[in-house]
Amino acid sequence: MELRALLLLLLCFPGFQAQILRTEETRSEGSSLYIQCPYTAQTTHQQQKAWCRLRNRQCEPLVVTKEYSHTNWATKGRVALKDNPTERTVSVTMTELQAEDSGTYFCAYYSYGYHQLRMISLFVFKELHKWELDSVSVQCLPSTLNYSLGTKVWCRREDETLCSVIVRTDYSSTQHNSKALEDRTLIQDDTQKRTVTITMQKLQAEDSGMYWCALYRRSYLTWLTEVRLSVFKRTKQYTAKESGDVSVQCPYSAPEYRAVSKAWCKEGARKSCTVLVTTNSLEYQRTPQQGRVRIQDDTEQGIVTVTMERLQAQDTGVYWCALYEHAHLFRMLEVTLNVSEVLAGTTLPGAASTSQATPAANSPAPSSNGNTFILLSGILSILFLLALISLVTLYVRRCKQLNATAHSKGNRDGEDTCEKPGNTAQPESYERLRSPRDNSKDLKYVTLNFKSQLSPEDPLYCNVELSEVHRKPKDENVEYATIAVKQLTTNDKG
């Protein structure tokens, strides 16, 4: 029953049908939009298809296909349209979108007027990226509406339904001594050029968000331009040693902020920042860092230099280099400082991405000297014992080698001695028998003299080393000789 009622409404009230088919599309500047619009069988491909922009409740055609033509596509500027009769759809592409392209569009076919196929609410937003202390300027072009109607406002979107008004054209914009966003925002209405210009100054990271330029009429906001703003902090990290120093440089725009006081503060709870020192000599701060923090402002170069001396472990934290204007801080640079305790005899290595402070030259404590002396004495004692053990070991090895050499030599001398068994008499002299080492075949002679008298029957022995004998004697003539010992008479002895 409900479905039949819905179909009856669509047939009887085509305006209701258009409302049902209306959709919203959001794009960033520079992007593209692609949509498809289906049509029914009653709409033939020979009928003109168009992409219209709704102005004053009328269709303003941007691109139209030709009637009764075989060509089913058309382009104009940044818009292309194509009719697909097989699938009964019209495809539309818009490229390089700009903020002024925001508005209401619809696909249509022509039959004694343009009839809507699908309605699109297009929102093209500006996407801006800024650094802290930068300024941003936005122009709103309310050309689609009656410019004289309503008040122009600049509001910040809190959620889907709430947009908090920051400034408006029916109120005069004045600068106040406040950090509030509305006191840093100006709105200018140029009635001749029919434009509204919004300027935001001294941007901070907390200013990031979505903003609308809109018409305010009869308690309702009519959207004109959307801006998505992202504000980034400038940050640095420093690592220092206890009792050392650290120096930080903070650049700023000299023409804009040369005359403004600068401050160095430490961030605490709830993102509040306690001022430690300022460039204004009239400002006197009582802090634990009093006397250890110095600040200098080079107004020509636009650089603030902050030096912290004799660092302590409790100095670790987050600091701001900021503009100090009417007791309000506007962050220029956020610094994260890590102060490490230094152990005796150790140093803190510096990282490539951090700045290493130079520590002050302090003499070591007496306990540190005593520990160092004991450590060095123990190392030297161990080295001396190792050297002594090595010398003793070498001496023992040398003695063993000498004894082995002497013993070997004595054995060899005994093996070369020729003696007669059973007789204690030793030859008066002897020569070691060696085989010739050259190729000469000359006969070698040996003369043996004995003190004792030998009988002809007593044999004679001679020990010859095995190494002195050829293992494989060559075939050669061998001559044998018999040595006989003749008993000498008394007359022959002399």
What would you note in describing this structure?
The protein has four domains: 15-123, Immunoglobulin-like (Sandwich), CATH 2.60.40.10; 132-232, Immunoglobulins (Immunoglobulin-like, Sandwich); 235-356, Sandwich (Immunoglobulin-like), CATH 2.60.40; 412-494, no CATH class. The protein has four helices and 25 strands. A hairpin with a 2-residue loop joins strand 15 (209-217) and strand 16 (220-232). The chain has helices spanning 2-12, 14-20, 254-257, 366-415; strands at residues 23-28, 33-38, 49-55, 58-64, 73-76, 79-84, 89-94, 103-110, 114-131, 136-140, 151-157, 163-168, 185-190, 195-200, 209-217, 220-232, 235-241, 246-251, 261-267, 273-278, 293-298, 303-308, 317-325, 328-340, 355-356. With 494 residues, it is mainly β. Strands 1, 3, 4, 8, 9, 11, 12, 15 and 16 form a nine-stranded mixed β-sheet that branches. Strands 20-19-23-24-17-25 form a six-stranded mixed β-sheet, with no helix packed on it. A four-stranded antiparallel β-sheet has the order 2-7-6-5, with no helix packed on it. Helix 1 packs across helix 2.
| Number of helical elements | 4
Low-confidence stretches: 1-20, 347-368, 414-446, 488-494
H/E series, N to C?
Answer: HHEEEEEEEEEEEEEEEEEEHEEEEEEEH
- Please report the distance between the alpha carbons of the first and last residues: 167 Å
Shape: elongated
Mean pLDDT: 76
Structural class: mainly beta
For the largest beta-sheet, the strand count, sense and barrel status come to: 9 strands, mixed
Number of strands: 25
The CATH level-2 architecture of the largest domain is identified as Sandwich
CATH topology of the largest domain: Immunoglobulin-like
Radius of gyration computed on alpha carbons: 55 Å
CATH superfamily of the largest domain: Immunoglobulins
Strand content: 35-45%
Q: What number of domains?
A: 4
Text of the CATH class of the largest domain: Mainly Beta
Helix content: 10-25%
